[in-house]
């Protein structure tokens, strides 16, 4: 396994060990390439621990993951209160704000983050940055209703200061990416000045009619776990505390 994959696994395993406890019965499962390790570790807790638990997916990928792992599937309309949600991120800043939606799942992800008593991020060391937009340069993912995309793009270009905002195009399909909710995705890069204060730009984007959700999650997480190249895990907490912990066994 290469360093990045093992860093993802380290972060996921440590986060599950610390936050998925026997009393947790409703668990949100996020999307992306780090989340399979979250599910792997939960399965390792054993059949007894997972009996009676319900797992809520953030999209097609995590639904498949839950079902193929033999875990119980539910949805957030049945379980609007979730004990703990674990999810990946494209980038996390020093205040635990993050960019999400690199896989176009951020609408459902934000619903599950908000529904959760505890929201935990897991990622490899490349995502641990001081300011958003440091390594993840494609921009803030924005889910829009299809008929409004050109108007929202124009708003982003002319009013909100993202002249390079673009409609995300599909690979191996002609035309745009279509989210699990049937919407389009715009990627809008902003300069450092704007990304230093992600809440303000998030609120401005969200006010544009036609926008369904913005892939900026501002101070929603309790903690972010980053797997490091040296086999340790850095944990950033919402109160500013930072722990450096050894890898789980
Ligand atoms: O839409 C996708 C999600 O927000 C993912 O959690 C995010 O893109 C991070 O994915 P990965 O762990 O693959 O970098």
Automatic annotation (TrEMBL):
Pfam families according to UniProt: Rib_5-P_isom_A
Listed pathway(s): Carbohydrate degradation; pentose phosphate pathway; D-ribose 5-phosphate from D-ribulose 5-phosphate (non-oxidative stage): step 1/1
Record key words, sorted: Isomerase
EC supergroup of this enzyme: isomerase
GO function terms (MF aspect): ribose-5-phosphate isomerase activity
Catalytic reaction annotation: aldehydo-D-ribose 5-phosphate = D-ribulose 5-phosphate
Classification via InterPro entries: NagB/RpiA_transferase-like, Ribose5P_isomerase_type_A
A biological process from GO: pentose-phosphate shunt, non-oxidative branch
Keyword Isomerase: yes
Disulfide bond in keyword set: no
GO cellular component annotations of the record: cytoplasm
CDD domains assigned: RPI_A
EC number from the UniProt entry: 5.3.1.6
Family: Belongs to the ribose 5-phosphate isomerase family.
Protein name: Ribose-5-phosphate isomerase
Organism, as annotated: Laccaria bicolor (strain S238N-H82 / ATCC MYA-4686)
Top-level taxonomy: Eukaryota, Fungi, Dikarya, Basidiomycota, Agaricomycotina
């Amino acid at each position: 396994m290469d360093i990045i994959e093992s860093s993802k696994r380290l972060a996921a395993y440590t986060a599950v060990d610390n936050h998925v406890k026997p009393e947790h019965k409703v668990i949100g499962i996020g999307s992306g390439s780090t989340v399979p390790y979250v599910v792997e570790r939960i399965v390792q807790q054993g059949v007894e621990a997972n009996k009676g638990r319900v797992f809520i997916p953030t999209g097609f990928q995590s639904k498949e993951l839950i079902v193929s792992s033999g875990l119980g599937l539910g949805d957030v309309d049945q379980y609007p209160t979730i004990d703990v949600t674990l999810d990946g991120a494209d980038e996390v800043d020093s205040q635990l704000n993050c960019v999400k939606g690199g896989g176009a799942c951020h609408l459902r992800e934000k619903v599950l983050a908000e529904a959760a008593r505890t929201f935990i991020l897991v990622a490899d060391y490349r995502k641990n940055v001081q300011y958003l937009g440091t390594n993840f340069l494609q921009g803030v993912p924005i889910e829009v209703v299809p008929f409004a995309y050109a108007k929202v793009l124009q708003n982003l270009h002319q009013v909100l200061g993202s002249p390079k905002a673009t409609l995300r195009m599909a690979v191996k399909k002609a035309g745009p990416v279509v989210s699990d909710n049937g919407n389009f995705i715009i990627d809008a890069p902003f300069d450092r000045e704007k990304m230093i204060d992600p809440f303000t730009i998030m609120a401005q984007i969200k006010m544009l009619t036609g926008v369904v959700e913005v892939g900026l999650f501002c101070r929603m997480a309790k903690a972010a776990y980053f797997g490091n190249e040296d086999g340790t895990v850095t944990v950033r907490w919402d109160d500013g505390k930072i722990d450096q912990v050894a890898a789980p066994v």
